[in-house]
Structures are given as structure tokens and as C-alpha cells.
Design a protein that fits this description.
CATH architecture of one domain: Orthogonal Bundle
Shape: flat
Number of helices: 5
Distance between the termini: 189 Å
Strand content: under 5%
CATH class of one domain: Mainly Alpha
CATH superfamily of one domain: ESAT-6-like
């Protein structure tokens, strides 16, 4: 029989870090509220001490100052406790973060091992050598295919073909040469043919009769009345 309580089961899961941090933050908030309350108490004791000094009650003022010191000592304890809790919370958060980092790295290691399964450095080197050999063979085949045959690039045949092309080009230029234009026909400078009808001539006798008639009409219009 265990006199100090039940023995902790082996492999039992410890407290949850997130829940522990939450409880510690609640404790810190409680301490902060306690400190605010004590600050008000200190201000109250200072006010009472001043009032007692005004009444010449030194013993009462001294008692108020002692209580003020007691409250200040309590605040110092609260600040120390808060500091310890905050340090522990930071340590727990750091531990949780480090644990997650280690777990992630472990998973990454397993993924890498799974990815390179059945593959080692010697195998990779052999594959690279095979690839290099295949590329060299492919290059040799390409060069062999692209190499010109001797009869295709014979200089004499090419020169003869070039001369034939020059002769054909010369004949084409002669056939396409423009014809010589004929000499222009001289033109005579002749007067233009009239296009209007000549004015009809009035007989001389008729012209004189008309003049006389106009003269008589003028004299008649100028004659004075009797």
C-alpha cells in the first residue's frame, strides 16, 4: 500500500501545455487585480497618515505608514510571482515550439527516406554515366546524318551549274529589254477652223433708209407746237 497516494501510471500523459499556459495566464491576471487593490490601499494609508499628522497624531500616522510598508512588501511578492509565471509560460511556449520543429524535421526526414528509397549515390552515378553515354552517341549520330556526301558538294559540278545559271539569267535579261521607241511624226502649225457663223451683212440702201427714218423721228420729237 502506498502511503503517499497512488503511484503515477507509467506512460501516463502529462498536463496539456496549452491548458497549463491558460491557467497560468489566469493566475497572472488575478495577481494584477490584487496589485491594483493594494495600490489603492497604499494611497489610502498615505492620505490617512497626512490627516493624522495634521491633527498632531504621530502614533496614528506611524501606524498608517507601517501598513503602507506592509502593502508595498506584498506588491513586491506579487511582482516576483508574476515574473516567475511569465518566465515559465515563455519556457513552456518555447518547448512546445521546439517540439513542433523537431516533429516536423522528423517527418521531413522520413519523407526524404521514402522518396529516395532504392536509390543511393552509386546508383545515381551509374545513371548519370549512362545518360552521358547516350547523349554522346546521339551527338555522333546527328553529325553522321548531317555530314554532306562527296558527290553532292563536288566543286566542278557546282561551278558548271553556276555558269548555266548565269547564262540563263543573261538570256532572260535580253528578252525582257524594252523596245526602241519610233520617231515622232512632225505636226504642221495650221490656223484653227472657225466655229461661229459670220455676221450677216445688211444692204447699204436698207441701212440708209433706216438712218433717214430715225432722223425724221428725232426731228418730229423736237418740233415745237404751233
Amino acid at each position: 500500500m502506498n502511503l503517499f497516494g497512488r503511484k503515477k501510471a507509467e506512460g501516463a500523459r502529462g498536463p496539456d501545455p496549452a491548458q497549463t499556459i491558460l491557467q497560468m495566464r489566469q493566475t497572472v491576471e488575478t495577481l494584477e487585480k490584487r496589485q491594483v487593490h493594494l495600490d489603492k490601499k497604499i494611497e489610502q494609508q498615505v492620505t490617512e497618515a497626512k490627516a493624522k499628522m495634521a491633527k498632531k497624531d504621530k502614533r496614528g500616522a506611524l501606524y498608517c505608514l507601517k501598513r503602507k510598508k506592509m502593502y508595498e512588501a506584498e506588491i513586491d511578492k506579487i511582482n516576483g510571482a508574476r515574473l516567475q509565471l511569465e518566465q515559465q509560460m515563455m519556457a513552456i511556449e518555447t518547448t512546445v515550439t521546439n517540439t513542433e520543429i523537431v516533429q516536423t524535421m522528423h517527418q521531413a526526414k522520413g519523407a526524404m527516406e521514402s522518396a529516395r528509397k532504392n536509390m543511393d549515390a552509386d546508383t545515381v552515378n551509374d545513371i548519370m554515366d549512362d545518360v552521358k553515354d547516350e547523349m554522346e552517341q546521339a551527338d555522333e549520330i546527328s553529325q553522321a546524318i548531317s555530314a554532306p556526301a562527296n558527290d553532292v558538294l563536288d566543286d566542278d559540278d557546282l561551278l558548271n551549274e553556276l555558269n548555266e545559271l548565269e547564262e540563263l539569267e543573261l538570256e532572260s535579261q535580253l528578252l525582257e529589254a524594252p523596245a526602241i521607241p519610233a520617231a515622232p511624226t512632225p505636226q504642221l502649225d495650221l490656223p484653227a477652223v472657225p466655229t461661229t457663223q459670220p455676221a450677216e451683212k445688211v444692204p447699204v440702201a436698207d441701212q440708209e433708209d433706216a438712218d433717214m427714218k430715225a432722223l425724221r423721228e428725232l426731228e418730229a420729237s423736237m418740233a415745237l407746237p404751233a
